[in-house]
Every structure is written in C-alpha cells, then in structure tokens.
Amino acid sequence: MEKTENIVIVGAGPIGIETAALLKRRGLHARHIDAGPIAATLDWWAPGTKFFSSPERLEIAGVPLVTRDQEKATREEYMAYLRAVAAQFKLPIETYTKLVDAERIEDSNTPDAPRFRLKLQRQPAPTDSTPDSPPTETVLATNLILATGNMDLPRLIGVEGETTTPWVSHYLKDPHHYYAKSVLIVGGKNSAVEAAIRLYRVGAKVALSYRRDRFDPERIKYWLLPELEWLIEKGRIVFHPETVPKTFEPGATTLKRLRPHPEGEYFKTASDFVLLLTGYDQDKTLFEKLGVDLSGEEQRPLFNRETMQTSIEGLFVAGTATGGSQKRAKVFIETSHVHAQRIAATLAGEQTNTPDPEYGRLEEA
C-alpha cells in the first residue's frame, strides 16, 4: 500500500531540522527522514572540532545556542543542541531511514496530487546481524524538500589504494588514535590545517603535503594559519609544498614533487597513517533521478531564490545542498537559515520577503 504525504523532508542536519520546526510552527506536518542519525555529517567530524561561525549564527528556529565557555561551539555542543531543538519542537524525525529511490509522477494534474514516488528503506541497526534486506516502504509526496548537504563523498586524488589501504583515510578520527605515530596529512585547507595542529599537540609526528607552494589565507580559519606557519618555521611540523602522493606503503608514502628538484622527482616520507583531507563532493544521484537542472563545474541545483523551489514543481532544496560540490565554500549553515524560512512560507501560502544573506547568493532557476 502506498501512503501519501503532503511534505517529505530528506535530511536531518541543521537546516532540515529548522525547516521542519518552521513548518510545524505553521501547523504543517512533514514526514522527515535521514539515512543516519541527525546531523550525520557532524557524526564523522573528529571530536572537539570547533565551528568557524559564532553560536548566534548557528542558531536555528529562534532557539539560543549556549556554549560552555561562551566561545565557538564544538561538534559535541552543536549535536546536543540539535537534539534539544528536535525534542523541543517534538519533531518526529525518522533516523536510519534512507531514500533509496525517487521518481516523478508525470500524470500529477491537480495542485494537491502527489508529484513524487519515493522508496524508503529502514537501515539495520549496528547490532543487527540479520542477513535479510531491510523492509522498504513506498510513499507518494506532493512536496519534497532535499536538505541533504553536500559532503557525501570524499574527493578522491586518484592514487591506487586510497580507498582500500587500511592506514589511509579521508576522515580524521579522534586525535588520540595518532599519538606517537607518524602521520602524513594531504591537503592545505581548513580540515588539513586543523588536523595537522591537533595531531601535533597530541604527540603525533606530523608531515603535511600540499600541491601548492603556500596556503591560501581565505580558505583557512584565521586563527589557525599563524599557528601552523609558526610550527612549520620551528620544524615541529614538516611541510612538503608542491607535492602529491604517488604510492602508499606500510610505514611510508612516496611523494612526487611537482617542480624540478636537485634531489629528484620522488622521495619517501614516514607515515604510519595517511589522512587525505582534500575535501568532499555532493552525491547528485537524487537530483539527477528527479531531473533537476544543475549548473557549472560545481553542479549546483538551480532554484528560485524567493521560494527555494527547483526547476521541478514541488521539489525544494535547502542548506548546503544548494551549493553543489563547492570548490570554494560560499554556502554554510549561517547563510542557509533563509532557505528554511522561504520554504516554510511558500508551503504555508505566505508572502516570501526574507532578504538574502550578505553572501552565499546563487543563481535563480
């Protein structure tokens, strides 16, 4: 039996939760799902990671975000905050429920008729050893909101073994794991720089490989770059500029120099662990299946800025999902609150007159 819903929200990150809260405030019910826990992207951040944005800019649905030391929120503080907001608004978020397939219903000829057929699948619990496939459910939706983020897939560097070598990873674990070990970090933006500093401070032997000759201050949190440069200057972190990994071996990585060097094109550096912190890309599968128009190298979904509706009637996009695979981040949580406000107003039949944020403006559909 196919169940019909007026509104389905996919994604329970900050903007997905804010959208659900604003809809509920207007008396509108939404079926809300996420393939993992709420704030699934934060779940793989290393413990203790701090946001760039201030607490006031991360607040959602008018609920204050209070941090322990009146400083920028940590991953743990923000995850607790999002749980509290979901509980305060009594949002019935269905976690570990994945949208595995979606299609448009072409014969939808009335305003309230379902426009999308969605296949949902309950994900097995981590302790579930049952080999059977999880049950699925078909849902018909009139309006579909994709608040799915844009950090779904690690950005691969094209080196053999980067996804199969056990000591090579695209994700930083708790820094404690790397104590007294040699760690090669590949990358030169926020995540790589922050990881290098944190791992040095827990007692790891850190080397940093970056394909450029210097760091771009516009791509690094302003308080991190001076610290990193001082640690490199004092020889406490080894910096290999204009290099890329060539091969991974147990205990060592071969790096390739991108410019001629008197000591040759290749050299080895110690690496019990390798962290490829080179960024993440958006999974565009849903957009492509539903026929959403995508734009430019970053493949950003096109949408109407006043309503957040894409080129497909009834299909809305919110949060960092609007940014595609961002090469230079312009869309953040703090620039996306307006998305939730516009979607809620549109679906409630209200006039949408919320102003654009100072930055993060993208093309209209």
- Helix/strand-derived class? alpha/beta
Strand content: 15-25%
Distance between the termini: 35 Å
Count of helical segments? 8
User: Shape, please?
Assistant: elongated
Uncertain residue segments: 359-365
CATH topology of the largest domain: FAD/NAD(P)-binding domain
Q: Specify the CATH architecture of the largest domain.
A: 3-Layer(bba) Sandwich
The helicity comes to: 10-25%
At the fourth level of CATH, the homologous superfamily of the largest domain is FAD/NAD(P)-binding domain
The H-and-E topology, N to C, reads as EHEHHHEEEEEEEHEHEEEEEEHEEEH
Q: Compute the number of structural domains.
A: 2
- CATH uppermost class of the largest domain: Alpha Beta
**Counted beta strands:** 19
The largest β sheet comes out as: 7 strands, mixed
Q: What value does the Rg take, in angstroms?
A: 22 Å
The average pLDDT score comes to: 92
Please describe the structure with a list of short key phrases separated by commas or semicolons.
365 residues; alpha/beta; FAD/NAD(P)-binding domain; 7-stranded mixed sheet; 8 helices; 19 strands; 20% helix; 25% strand; disordered C terminus
